[in-house]
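Researcher: Here's a chain I'd like modeled. Treat it as a single chain, no partners, no ligands.
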Amino acid sequence: MNAYARAAQNYSSVKVQSSVLDASPHRLIQMLFEGALERIAQAKGAMQQGQIARKGERIQKAINIVDGLQGSLKEKKEEGELADELNELYDYIIRALTEANYKNSVERLDECARLLGELKSGWDAIAEEVR
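Model: Modeled as a single isolated chain. Structure tokens:
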């Protein structure tokens, strides 16, 4: 990696860290959704280009993000039907991402992106209502 690439990577890292530190709890969840969707898109590109290692790495990062979203439900001891359904949906997405990785399934990646996109849209709508 050349000096310019390292500098850009360091800038990106500082920018992300700064955004996280300044973000509201609601914005942090939005950022997690955005990050998962970005990793899925990157995995899809890597899959289509035959970059097996990169595909697996990006899918694993998406799984880690979804696992964090799921963990936040448990950490807050969220109860009720909605929390149970979200927990099951996150579990399903994690399993689907794992399957997409093993089977090189673009369709499963697309399904996960659609589900996470719908969840993000709902979360984004909450922000608009709060304003």
